[in-house]
Specification:
mainly alpha; 9 helices; globular
Length: 211
């Protein structure tokens, strides 16, 4: 799954597990945690393989135990934002080493990225996240002139970086032509543009508060 879907569904699942506190989540942290397991994409030079231990339940449970012990229920939505990345997103779109180190087997539906299912899941996540943001008040807060919104720069940077990462992976034809001729790719690109613009505007609103 692309960062688009991971961020969107990460936010949705975090709000679900936050319950009544759903409108008080620190959204920049949720969005960053939702894509954090994919840090392994940039660690290939160190021998780290994608979809291995960074996509393991055990790895993140151990890492988050101190936070869960201190913050208890308040931290659960943030933990869920990480876990849904591979237990939901990459499980349905791909295969992951879900139970490392107890099992080195990969689990998932092996659905390919850029398949009809993947694009539908990512677009559905974006639309659902937008609806949830609107109804719980997060959309208004994230587009208001507020200092903490400047931290939306980090998910903005992560999303743009992922777009550039995947863009260089399409060398067969000129990228613009490929996007124009593929409905699935054009849909994914449009979704990324919508999210990038939203994150950029939120960041700009945060910067305005420092004037």
């Amino acid at each position: 799954m692309f960062f688009l879907g991971h961020m969107a569904w990460g936010y949705v699942w975090a709000v679900v597990f936050a319950g009544k506190r759903g409108g008080k989540l620190f959204v920049p942290a949720v969005l960053m945690l939702a894509v954090l397991p994919d840090v392994d994409l940039f660690l290939g030079g160190f021998g780290v393989e994608h979809h291995t231990f960074f996509h393991s339940l055990f790895f993140w449970v151990v890492l988050f135990v101190p936070f869960l012990a201190v913050y208890r229920g308040k931290f659960i939505p943030y933990f869920v934002a990480v876990v849904q990345h591979f237990a939901f997103g990459d499980f349905f779109v791909g295969k992951v080493m879900l139970f490392w180190p107890f099992s080195l087997s990969y689990f998932g539906f092996s659905t390919a990225m850029m398949s009809v299912f993947d694009v539908a899941l990512e677009v559905a996540g974006l639309l659902l996240a937008a609806g949830v943001m609107y109804f719980n008040g997060d959309l208004r807060r994230l587009l208001s002139v507020e200092k903490r919104n400047v931290l939306m720069f980090f998910p903005f940077l992560a999303l743009v970086t992922s777009m550039l990462f995947f863009a260089v992976d399409v060398p067969i034809v000129p990228l613009v032509s490929h996007i124009w001729n593929s409905r699935l790719l054009s849909t994914i690109v449009l979704g990324h543009i919508v999210l990038v613009v939203f994150l950029a505007v939120s960041t700009a609103q945060g910067l305005r508060s420092f004037r």
